[in-house]
């Protein structure tokens, strides 16, 4: 695909929105670098076949930077119960825009103001909730209580800040807080961490099933999640699985490796909440595999791409330097280079998954549309993983 043809398809960043239990409830469509109309760009993405099914049951928060241009015909292809229209608060000072948005709200579309509007503008616009960058400051209390919510606090860099915003009246949260856990894993169960590394080592060298079973029996939390997984609706088995041996046979070697790698992130935190790293690891792993496939890489290379993606957050999970983690595992050299230095073909792909832009995608020979399809599939899989583990 030529460069001009690539540029016609919008490049989006999906930002997960979580509730107070670290469960995903929505996705924001970020098109800040898109030169055209961001809402029209979002519509292009939402024309992807089965897109709403892929992202179910999450809501989609779409940017509407120019609400004066919004028409009913734009909304006809959308599932109203799954769409939240994100409108700049400043735009709602215009009475004509207030009437227009209020009409869409009456028709069943949810309006979320980006920022805090003056006076009664939010209510007059039919807005039910606010989206506010609360990374450093909180909006006035009256701004939050005037609408039923749920209000979304963005810029969340820590769980402590989420707790503060929750007290202020927010119930949805977005940011990179998952990458900055506040608990110190090094002060926790050292034996458990060593067991995890041992299990990762066995998976990396494709160890015998009996060796895996021995370690699984020593880790009640991991064993519980594995049995819960194979008995979930994802596998739709006719009879329940009660033993690790059965679970291993049902999943098969390749799937067992993949699920166990993800199950490492499923461990509950000290506060009992779900680990927000789990869906992020699933997104990275799936995107790495999908992009590798789109580039024509063979099955083994796709598997290595998956491993690089899922292992790329182990340093955050285990609170250990990646050098120590890699040293404890028998990984392919290409995976090691990717994890340590973001070097080599896998490293280049991992950088694209972490931070993408048009120039780097074009250099890699990946079209915007191909990237979106891999991204969509990755989020679909991460949603399923979170619901089944």
From TrEMBL:
Domain (HDOD): residue spans on this chain: 189-380
Pfam family, one: HDOD
Entries under PROSITE patterns matching the protein: HDOD
Protein name stated in the entry: HDOD domain-containing protein
Species for this entry: Duganella rivi
Lineage start: Bacteria, Pseudomonadati, Pseudomonadota, Betaproteobacteria, Burkholderiales
